[in-house]
Amino acid sequence: MAPTLLELAHWSTWAVCAVIKLPQLAAVLAAGSARGVSTSSLLLELAGFLVFLRYQIYYGYPLQTYLEYPIIIAQDVILLLFILHFNGNKKRALFYGVIFWGGWYMITLRKWIIDLALNLCTFISAASKLAQLRCLWQTKDSGQVSALTWSMSAYTCATRIFTTIMTMNDLGVLIRFITMLILNIWVTATILHYRKTKKTD
């Protein structure tokens, strides 16, 4: 029974992640605006995903436990490019690319660096969610922020809690997913709250 549930968790996570950013991309493109979407949140999220992917690869964890990260990272990069375009900051894309590329190689120079990076990754990823919450609280408007994307992120965190317990039992990874699950639910609830508030006004 457990292997079947594990396979179901892996496959459902990959399926959700294959389209996880599409609702957000569609909302931004349809509006021709990135209003409500925090660039800081996206940059921090991208940094967290890159560190986490590098950590998984460095320690040789099973591919099925992190296969979705290259897919999510590619979607985040595309979303970032559209946000930079709509915000008139296209020239910053090269700067961000160089920083992320350099970081990708530097964090594996020593074992202690990658271990520290994973611990910081949890804080970085949490900061990305808090940056989006801050943006929502300041504007009191969910704008083009997709509740579907954030709820799918919550789902994938929940499935990854299960797969982490079943396959790796890495406490640092488990804490990261639990933290992200709570924050993704919080962001989703905030988006829905402001969307409901806007409709009743």
Characterization of the model:
- This protein has helices spanning 2-19, 22-31, 39-58, 68-86, 92-106, 111-139, 147-167, 171-200.
- It is an all-alpha fold.
- α1 runs parallel beside α4 (68-86), α1 (2-19) runs antiparallel to α7 (147-167) and α6 runs parallel beside α8 (171-200).
Number of β-strand runs: 0
Separation, N- and C-terminal Cα atoms: 50 Å
Contiguous low-pLDDT stretches (5 residues minimum) are none
Q: Could you give a short account of the major beta sheet?
A: none
Overall geometric form? globular
User: Count of helical segments?
Assistant: 8
Radius of gyration: 17 Å
Average pLDDT over all residues: 89
Structural class: mainly alpha
* Helical percentage: over 70%
SSE series: HHHHHHHH
- % residues in beta strands: under 5%
Concise description?
With 201 residues, the chain is an all-alpha fold. Helices cover 81% and strands 0% of the residues. It has eight helices and no strands.
Structural descriptors:
201 residues; mainly alpha; 8 helices; globular
Summarize the topology.
Elements: H1 2-19, H2 22-31, H3 39-58, H4 68-86, H5 92-106, H6 111-139, H7 147-167, H8 171-200
Helix pairs in contact: 1-4, 1-7, 2-4, 3-4, 3-5, 3-6, 6-8, 7-8
